[in-house]
Amino acid sequence: MARTEDELSIVCLQSRVPEGCQIDRDWTCFKFIGPFAFGETGIVLSVIKPLSEAGLGIFVVSTFDGDHLLVKTEDLAAAVKLLTGAGHQLQ
Questions:
Q1: Torsion sign, CA atoms 70, 73, 74, 79
Q2: pTM for the full model?
Q3: Which DSSP state fits 88?
Q4: CA–CA distance, 83 with 64 (Å, rounded to integer)
Q5: Which pLDDT band holds residue 86 (cuts at 50, 70, 90)?
Q6: How far apart are CA 28 and CA 78, in angstroms?
Q7: Half-sphere exposure of residue 73, counting CA atoms within 13 Å on the CB side?
Q8: Residues ≥6 apart with Cβ < 8 Å to 14
Q9: Alpha carbons 44 and 61: distance in angstroms, whole number
């Protein structure tokens, strides 16, 4: 959830979005599996860089306990290929 003076954004399962709310549908989520030290740098960059360089849109949600990468479901096959090609393991 992110709140500004004029909007509230919530990331959740699209099946839970009430009728009448503005929604951007059809995202697939990857969870970063650690453990990662809180101060460790470059983790998110190593994942988003190959996707960004290939022109794929991404959305990253970071929490105290972890990071989540969302890609449009229509880009899922390309994202998997790019991430595995960059040396990441997907489960």
A1: positive
A2: 0.82
A3: -
A4: 24
A5: very high
A6: 12
A7: 6
A8: 23, 25, 26, 27
A9: 10
